[in-house]
Amino acid sequence: MSEDLMGYNRIVENALKGVVREALTRAAAVGLPGDHHFYITYRTDAPGVVVPQSLQEQYPEEITIVIQHQFWDLTVDHGSFSLTLSFGGRKEHLEVPFGAITGFADPSVQFGLQFKADQASINENLHDRDEELSAAVADGSLEDTPVPVETDTASADVVVLDRFRKK
What we know:
- The protein is an alpha+beta fold.
- It has a single domain (about 10-165), classed as SH3 type barrels, CATH 2.30.30.220.
- The chain has helices at about 10-30, 55-60, 120-140, and strands at about 40-45, 60-65, 70-75, 80-85, 90-95, 100-105, 110-115.
- The strands form 2 sheets. Strands 2-1-6-7 form a 4-stranded antiparallel sheet, covered by helices on one side. The protein has a 3-stranded antiparallel sheet with strand order 3-4-5.
- A hairpin with a 2-residue loop joins strand 4 and strand 5.
- It is globular and about 55 Å long.
- The two termini are about 30 Å apart.
- Residues about 120-125 and about 140-160 have low confidence and may be disordered.
């Protein structure tokens, strides 16, 4: 078999992310009709992702957000979407490039998509963070920084979809 020099897998994945973009664009324009709601899983360590520090610490690699009843300021452009969601009673602004999305589902109609994260970009981003951390350790600026504690408890606003994934 010949090597795929056209990159068909990437072309298909980009086309399917267009489905996510269109669904979000419609939700931004007219809201979510009927029982529709979205679960969007994305890499919090991907380039271009903007999340509050508290969520970054709690979910250093991946998070699933639910867009259903309470969301504000949903905007969509060609490369990303942004919105405000409530986490623990606090409204937080999120910005997510479509390249960071690893899963999209609308359980009301049993529709779902899974994507591969752009691992090269994520690895590059993690390398940059490691360098920043090393520099902060060297200059002593981390002495007063709290260390995040991993917990197994899930917030009511974040849903873990691992049990639905095919293994």
